Amino acid sequence: xxxxxxxxxxxxRKAGRRHPMASVALIAIGLLxxxxxxxxxxxxxxxxxxxxxxxxxxxxxxxLFAANCATxxxxxxxxxxxxxxxxxxxxxAVDFQVGTGRMPMAVNGPQAEQKPVQFTDEQISAxxxxxxxxxxxxxxxxxxxxxxxxxxxxxxxxxxxxCAMCHNVAGAGxxxxxxxxxPPLTGVSATHIYEAMVTGPQNxxxxxxxxxxxxxKRDIISYxxxxxxxPSPGGFALGSLGPVSEGLFLWIFGLGAVVALxxxxxxxxx
Length: 270
Hints:
Strand order of the largest sheet: 1-2
Largest sheet: 2 strands, antiparallel
Radius of gyration: 33 Å
Number of strands: 2
Strand content: under 5%
CATH class of the domain at 141-232: Mainly Alpha
Oligomer: single chain
């Protein structure tokens, strides 16, 4: 009798036998499924942890606010007779005002003056997070808008058009009315300059993205940092206060030197 043999495939493998790559495919599918599940679980855990951390920061900020700010701004931050409402001012306003020491104010006056900062960076972040949680508002800037690598020419033009009438063309500051003043912009961090533009502290107008784009703000910051890091090409800048200080210098020292020289020559000739 002829020997019974199982039929084979064209490749010579016995019929019904699993393809050698099937195990590899099953393992790959299992790894993909396990990896996807782990990634989803990790992302969910990270999000939950971030939310918990954010909520904890907000709670810490709320306590700091109640102890240090509520007297003027109200327990609900909706303002009192001594301080404006902070609802909608955003984290950027808090970071600027508290981060430069302007708040809390020592005494009431025409405007809050810069002084030593009274809170740590963590406390300022907590206060900012709490105020930001009350209503949408400008956020604390980050990224390339602060890198100082913008267009200096465009930044100088934008600054002269929008800012120089108060802050001086060299950013040296200037006097305003009723005891108010525009502060000098030297030594001010890029973050605080940007925050001032988007929040309009004190007597400064708000420059939102419709007035000056984020790229334009970056250019202005770059221009100011260039002025700060490069000496005056004309020599002694006399405080960069403009023609008044320069004219006064000439009258006092230049004309004074001419008069003194004339007197000396006259005395020698006698």
